[in-house]
Specification:
Blueprint (H helix, E strand, L loop, with lengths): L2 H28 L9 H15 L9 H25 L15 H12 L9 H4 L2 H31 L9 H26 L10 E4 L8 E4 L5 H9 L20 H25 L3 H28 L2 H5 L17 H14 L14 H12 L10 H21 L4 E2 L2 E2 L2 H26 L2 H4 L6 H16 L14 H30 L16 H40 L1
Antiparallel strand pairs: 1-2, 3-4
């Protein structure tokens, strides 16, 4: 844990704090259908044209049920469209590498993966997907799935901010405005920057290079294609799906230390701004900053533990004479080092991103525990674009409810009484995620199809399976990279885990938004629980940890924790 790492961490947090307010103000304008932005002269005519083509009245709002139906139908159509493109890609244009059709189960898994903002990849992108599939079927969903998450967050915040209202917004309007005014302009600038750093963006066929050193293979295939445009939205939209199988560890997808730092930073950019948007919407900016503070505390705890574990290295290797100063460099890029790898792993699993610049399968047991635990917390530590905020707000409701029980008062949140309906839908949302992860993991570890995919036996093999279903349910998409998941059983079960993790969570959240919107605001009294300040931050962090850690502690004990003690004990025996 050297000075260079501490300087990077301070710079990262400082920049994040600096951009939170301006990003939040801009989101406030974008997510208001009547809001004005500096892009209006150029994009307003385009927005009107899109509404006209879709036959949408931007002034007409929806209640939470119609909002949910619109989102679900849009996602269903997107899933069918993506599945068709992947199955027919060999018959379509922009396929210079002449890849064939994607199998039925892999196409289903991939379509669900990108529609749900998970971007789990059971395939090698450079060898499986045509350029058309990468751009039309995958990058397209990187935009709209991210915009859908922002839309749901906006609906919930509107429900909290409004009173005696029946509507929470219009899904298609929120989708269009988030895509048009936020994601597209940011990604255009970001992609140009990535190209300036050496990232490729072309339609050339793959290159064949002759190897200098003699090996069994005398040539190497060098990937080409429209990469920068996809990488920009995969990071800003917290999607994570890599153009290549190596993801951000590939020198084309992540050419320099500067691109590495900015890719990490861009994952948190919009989620961080959404906390200020929350405070501005509910007219309580201290509350927005308190939510930001709770997220920052959880983030720092995770990154410091992961950094320490990877910096300490493997004691078994130290016993063999390997210099302990080098830490655990297995599975990491030398050009990034331990801290940048630990920071990337923590941030990408704090958010529902899933992009990786190192292989989590090669982390030490405690280092690998951090990404796993981040997903078990519900990925509410800044989280995905939109998903992090509405996930954390569910925990805020539960926190306020618990605080009310402790003082013997009817719980209130920003002047609204928290009733049994609010607590029930919040509890259902959280419990469904726990149920999803644990049931599918238990099924896999007692089935031949589940055990066949492991590359390791014992606790590490169990961690590979647990990580896969945790990643799918949390809509993260990263993997331990030691599990062979491109099978009928894994592709199908992981796809259903993604659907449950995404849409079975969104529906209760929208129900919560609808119930909050129709409530009356009551004057705050001396007994009202404050939703800002140190006490609230600590109570919110405690609620997140209790739900996340205690619910999964038995499973974690069988995986990373047991593996850690086995590693330490094996060194003593050796």
């Amino acid at each position: 844990m050297d000075l260079y790492g501490w300087m990077q961490l301070a710079l990262f947090l400082g920049l994040l704090l600096l951009v939170t307010r301006p990003m939040g103000v801009y989101l406030y304008r974008v997510l208001d259908p009547e809001g004005k932005t500096f892009l209006d002269p150029v994009l307003k005519p385009v927005e009107r044209l899109i509404y006209r083509l879709m036959r949408v009245d931007p002034r007409s709002e929806q209640d939470w049920k119609r909002y949910a139906v619109s989102l679900l139908m849009f996602s269903l159509v997107g899933t069918v469209f993506t599945y068709a493109v992947l199955r027919l890609q060999h018959l379509l244009q922009l396929n210079p590498q002449r890849v064939g059709p994607v199998s039925e189960h892999l196409a289903f898994n991939t379509a669900v993966s990108f529609v749900s903002n998970t971007n789990w990849q059971s395939y090698g992108g450079e060898s499986t997907m045509s350029y058309l599939s990468q751009m039309v079927a995958l990058a397209f969903h990187n935009f709209v799935s991210a915009a859908s998450g922002i839309a749901v967050a906006a609906a919930l915040v509107r429900g909290i901010a409004r009173h005696t209202a029946k509507t929470v917004g219009n899904f298609l309007v929120d989708l269009v405005r988030a895509t048009l005014y936020l994601l597209l302009p940011l990604c255009l600038l970001y992609a140009l920057f990535l190209v300036s750093q050496g990232m490729i963006q072309n339609f050339k066929p793959y290159e064949t290079a002759r190897l200098v050193e003699p090996t069994a293979e005398k040539t190497q295939i060098i990937v080409q294609g429209p990469m920068a445009s996809q990488v920009a939205i995969k990071m800003l939209g917290t999607n994570g799906g890599g153009y290549t199988n190596a993801n951000a560890a590939h020198p084309y997808e992540n050419p320099t230390p500067l691109t590495n730092f900015l890719q990490i930073f861009s994952i948190f950019l919009i989620p961080s701004g959404l906390t200020y948007y929350l405070g501005k919407m509910v007219k309580n900016r201290k509350h927005g900053w308190s939510v930001w503070g709770a997220m920052a505390v959880l983030f720092l705890a995770g990154v410091l533990l992961c950094w320490w574990a990877e910096g300490a290295g493997n004691p078994r290797l130290h016993a063999l004479g390997v210099d302990p100063a080098g830490g655990n460099m297995e599975g990491k890029e030398v050009r990034f080092g331990i801290f940048a790898s630990a920071l990337f792993a923590t941030v990408t699993t704090d958010a529902s991103c899933g992009a990786v610049n190192s292989m989590h399968d090669s982390f030490t047991p405690l280092g690998g525990l951090v990404p796993l635990l981040n997903m078990h917390l519900g990925e509410v530590v800044f989280g995905g674009v939109g998903t992090g905020l509405y996930g954390m707000l569910v925990f805020v409701i539960l926190t306020v409810f618990l605080a009310g029980l402790m003082v013997g008062r009817t719980p209130e949140y920003l002047g609204k009484k928290i009733d049994s309906y609010d607590v029930k839908v919040s509890a259902i949302a959280v419990l469904l995620l726990i149920f999803d992860i644990m049931v599918f993991t238990a099924w896999a570890v007692v089935s031949d199809w589940g055990l066949a995919g492991r590359s390791n036996a014992g606790p590490h093999g169990f961690s590979e399976i647990l990580y896969a279903f945790s990643s799918a349910t949390a809509n993260n998409g990263s993997a331990f990279a030691g599990l062979t998941a491109n099978t009928w059983w894994y592709n199908t079960t992981l796809a259903f885990a993604m659907l449950i993790g995404r849409f079975f969570f969104i529906v209760p959240v929208l129900a919560l938004a609808g119930n909050m919107a129709k409530k009356k605001v009551v004057p705050e009294s001396g007994g009202s629980f404050p939703v800002s300040g140190v006490t609230f931050v600590l109570l919110l962090v405690g609620t997140v940890l209790i739900v996340g850690v205690l619910s999964f502690f038995p499973a974690i004990s069988l995986g990373p924790i047991v593996e850690h003690f086995l590693m330490v004990r094996s060194n003593a025996i050796f």
